[in-house]
Amino acid sequence: MRRMLLSVFLAAALLTGCGGRETPVSPDEAPEAALTEQDVINMYTAASAVYDWFDLTTLPLDMEDARTEGGLTYYRVAAEDLSLPVSAVPEPTDSTLSWTPEPVTIASLADLRETAETYFSPEMADSLFALSPDHYKDFDGVLYAADGGRGSNVYLLDKAAAAEQADEDHWTVTVTFYADSWAFEKPSTTIGYSQAVLDLEHTADGWKFTSFAPSDGLDLEAETVFQFTYDMDTFMRDDAGNLDTWSDLKLACWLLHADGAYSEGPSDTLTRRFLEDPDTWFDALSVFPDSPWEHADTVMAAPVNDTYAWYGEEEQARLTEILDTYQPENEAQRALLDALKEARPQAVERATENATASFCLVTEGQFLSLGRKEGGYPWDYEGLPETPQSAGTGDNGESLFTFSFGGVDVAYLDADGTDNIYRMTTTVPGPRTLGGIQVGDSEDDVKAVYTGAVQMEAVGEDQFGADYALIHEPGGLSYCKHISFFITDGVVSAIQVEDLVDGRLLS
Predict the structure, then answer these.
(1) Is 298 in the same domain as 407?
(2) Is residue 159 part of a domain?
(3) pTM of the model
(4) CB contact at 8 A, 215 and 48
(5) Beta strands 72-77 and 142-146: pairing type?
(6) Do residues 457 and 375 share a domain?
(7) One domain for residues 349 and 414
(8) pLDDT value for 462
(9) What are the CA-CA distances from residue 52 to residues 91, 186, 211, 321 (Å)?
(10) How many folded domains does the chain comprise?
(11) Above pLDDT 90, what percent of the chain?
(12) 137-162 pLDDT, tens digit each
């Protein structure tokens, strides 16, 4: 995406002759055949440059030729063979207009008026000249102009235009102005967008714009433009408690530059809203797919990533239902749905890896975890016994092995050259779960970390002489994995981390 203001580009194009760009024929010379969308966008782009001569900048000047009047200094306009920019040069089949280089020469007020009325209705042309009555002036029939411009809107990141036919004599051009001042205002930013709807009408004098907006016409007062400060004191005081009052769009715009503690609450709020009311989410974020915002893709994919990273089976089933059944109303919503679907495989993979990684025992500085291992024993671990012990053959003919390391007894299987650790057991202090629990900790310690643990009769081949076990089995992407904390006299006497593969203890 471009990172320059389009108004700056247009001004540069005017000064340089647009580097070989082609200029459209006058819209009033257009044939009676219907215009195409590309025709209208090209008309808008050229008209925008003309509009800016009055509102934003000025025509090229010969600074060696000056006149003075009323305390103002005027310089001769040097606009011979001036090429107006167009958005694109379409193929002949894509256009009803003839796109050939036709540079214009503006040497007098009459020339300037004629060029303005090429694109604008007489009333619009009048309003342009009225913007600054002393900007352009003829001296002895030659056009001069006062030097200077008002300066572009610094909060404008970029803009985009889309054309839609209202009827055979009327098109509208919707211009979206994107705001983002993060680059020069961090840790604060003004971010969001505003839109202007312009009218192109077929009049007796040809196709003319009857309403228009400047190239940098971002409306900072629009309800879709927001001001944020990413400062913890400010966030906790002004923002953290008010997230429920924020619109989906405001939450999404906040997330464009948020990270860490600044992102979790807003992202959780927005994702839960998506699961409850996807229609509102799709409508609010329709501006995102074509936007120039750097992290727009991350924000669009957040509902999928959050659901698989943070939520359970119920929320994941709801997400699947939305992705499978949602019917987009337009191309922007289709792009959002595609972004969500494309993010899903990686989100599932990451969540599965994280779920598996939580089923481990940490001992002697290494993480022994359940699951598939690559590269052959001892895989990527250091200090494991040189040779594992054979433990016979499994029900499906796979080879079984065991080894002990750092107070942990490990069992794994080799099926067709693929190793998979399916059980790890410890009965001594030292080895810890990822939650920090070890043999010797109290039952209350276990419950404080594994808040969903369920008490049941002691399980395992010998039950370790325990009174009962507390079972941590979250399900979901953890599938058939669990951790059993065997409790004897209120204290952990053994820990077993296990993957049952084809079943669960609690369900």
Answers:
(1) no
(2) no
(3) 0.72
(4) yes
(5) antiparallel
(6) yes
(7) no
(8) 61
(9) 28, 30, 14, 49
(10) 3
(11) 65
(12) 999 999 999 998 788 899 999 999 99
